[in-house]
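Protein folds are increasingly written down as discrete tokens. With that in mind, we are printing a sequence and the tokens encoding its fold.
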Amino acid sequence: MHSFADRHDHTWKLDITIPDTHRVRRELDVDLLDLQTYEKLTIDWVLLAQVLWVLCREQAEQQSVSEEEFGRGLAGEAIDRATEALLEAVVDFFPPRRRRLLQQVHAKAQQLETASTAHVETILSGDRLDQLLKTKLDALDRELEASLADASLCGSTSGRPPDSSGSTSPPAV
């Protein structure tokens, strides 16, 4: 059995069973046993909260926790804890041979996430992003200056709008 604590210090237990998978499928049209769902749960936190609510609703009712309050408890680090607990509970649902394969998939997914996060942090902390932004801003600046120069060539050179009568000389007296 797996568990996670939300940000209100409620502890929620997860132990996936056939009735749980059926309930999630019936209420949310989500197949917990599909590998694509496994991936979606790591990036779609609203879906994660909905699935967790279906799985934890009985516990929540016993603690007089509403669906909205349950959802409010899923923020920040609680999202990571809940995701990890749910994914591990799903993996543990399977028979041992398949479970080992899914544990390997889960480990590889975590390695990929760690590596991609480190890569993005490297880009953000280095000069490369600053240089790219400066290059783009310089190009936009040149484009804006060229557009302003074109507009001034097409418009009036006196800097004031033309006379509405169409005449530029004063009327004769």
Summary: The CA atoms of residues 36 and 116 lie 20 Å apart. The longest strand covers residues 2-5.
